[in-house]
Task: inverse folding
């Protein structure tokens, strides 16, 4: 156990199957700190099951979302992935040359870090819109499906697919600069790497991008998944299937 975890205490992760909380598990395993894990299964499609999950998650935070990190003192609960990652880094990763994550060293690094986080959020919004249109067209009454399918295809062709392609082209270019293995450079992952892992996985598993055309992103993803901490996180989680179009 890291010495910082002894002095600061033991956080608790509220984890949801097949969700972005898997990357928080990865970060916790990278840091090597003691933590408690409360896992929720992904419910079936019924409204009752979804409401039961929301009710359970609202017991610890009013938004009823996962991941949630209950801080060691029990007095605060963090819910946004990037906020949780930055808290963990700034609280537990104080090892100097033995730091687990790459830390920004100057203003340029800070700006770059925020830029990469912005790209992750852009993926979130575009893929989220595609999933919403897909879900509506599948679950809607038969009589309105043709209209919804037309709207979905139009939105994909005019805006969403080109935007997603552009974002992934930018990520590919970011790794190409200086032959970077990690998005912030250096020999270890950073908070943006951890955050981007989920959004890249979501896009790839949903079938919205083909990494054969993005060899640097593909190599980066393989480096992420080769890390022992990632493997331990998968073992402790309860599933990481993000192919939502395939489930509907």
Result:
């Amino acid at each position: 156990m890291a010495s910082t975890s002894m002095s600061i205490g033991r956080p608790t992760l509220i984890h949801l199957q097949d969700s972005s909380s898997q990357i928080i598990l990865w970060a916790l395993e990278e840091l090597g700190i003691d933590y408690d894990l409360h896992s929720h299964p992904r419910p079936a499609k019924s409204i009752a099951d979804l409401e039961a999950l929301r009710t359970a998650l609202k017991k610890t935070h009013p938004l009823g979302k996962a991941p949630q990190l209950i801080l060691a003192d029990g007095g605060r609960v963090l819910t946004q992935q990037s906020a949780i990652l930055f808290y963990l880094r700034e609280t537990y990763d104080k090892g100097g040359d033995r730091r687990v994550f790459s830390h920004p060293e100057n203003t340029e690094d800070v700006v770059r870090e925020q830029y990469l986080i912005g790209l992750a959020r852009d993926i979130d919004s575009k893929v989220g819109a595609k999933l919403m249109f897909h879900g509506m067209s599948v679950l809607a009454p038969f009589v309105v499906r043709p209209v919804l399918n037309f709207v979905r295809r139009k939105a994909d062709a005019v805006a969403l697919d080109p935007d997603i392609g552009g974002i992934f082209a930018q990520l590919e270019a970011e790794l190409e600069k200086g032959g970077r293995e990690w998005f912030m450079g250096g020999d270890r992952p950073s908070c943006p790497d951890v955050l981007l892992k989920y959004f890249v996985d979501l896009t790839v598993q949903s079938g919205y991008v083909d990494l054969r055309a993005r060899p640097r992103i593909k190599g980066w993803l393989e480096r992420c998944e080769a890390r022992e901490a990632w493997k331990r996180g998968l073992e402790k989680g309860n599933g990481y299937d993000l192919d939502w179009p395939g489930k509907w």
User: Anything to note?
Assistant: Strands lie at 12-16, 36-40, 68-70, 77-78. DSSP finds ten helices and four strands in the chain.
